[in-house]
Amino acid sequence: MDEVTDEVVKLNSDRVRWRASHEEVVVLDLARSEYMAINKTGSALWPLLVAGTTRAHLCETLIGTFGVSAQRAESDVTAFLGIFSERGMLDQEPGQGAVTAPSTEEPGRTEGGP
Question: CA-CA distance, 56 to 1, in Å (whole number)?
Answer without folding.
Answer: 8
